[in-house]
Amino acid sequence: MSDTHSRASREAGADNDSDRHGLDREEIRQQAEETRDELRDAARQQAEGLIDRQKTAAAEQAEKVSTVLHKMADEFERQEQPYFSGCVNELAKRSDAFSRTLRERDLETLLDQTRQYNRQHPALFMGGAIAAGFMLSRFLRSSSQDGAQGY
């Protein structure tokens, strides 16, 4: 009888251990999921913050381009070049609109508009992407040269 009693108590203890281990595993799994969700949310917030800062910087650069274009249009006007003045004024207006769009719209809306424009005008989109890449590379090259000359 003592064998039966000790076996029963060992089995009961084993059942308690498996319940305890099962609960521990479940708690660990839940904690891991919570940690994963927290990390994902933190990464998303950091990415959104970075994108917002880049979007603001791009809007500021577009405003600077607009200012230069307006001055250029004024100069063409002074030189009595109405055709060129009109063309450059149109570019300046579009640069103003682009800057305004960057400031006013959220990232998801901008991405949707970009996808839609890409579907409607693939050749213009590719040409614009190539031109933007070229301008960016020139800007980065001139910025690095200016920084190297400063030392």
Automatic annotation (TrEMBL):
Segments of this protein annotated with the region Disordered: 1-58
Ranges annotated as biased composition (Basic and acidic residues): 1-43
UniProt KW keywords: Membrane, Transmembrane, Transmembrane helix
Source organism superkingdom: Bacteria
Residue ranges of the TM segments: 123-140
Official protein name in the record: Membrane-anchored ribosome-binding protein, inhibits growth in stationary phase, ElaB/YqjD/DUF883 family
Species whose genome carries this gene: Billgrantia zhangzhouensis
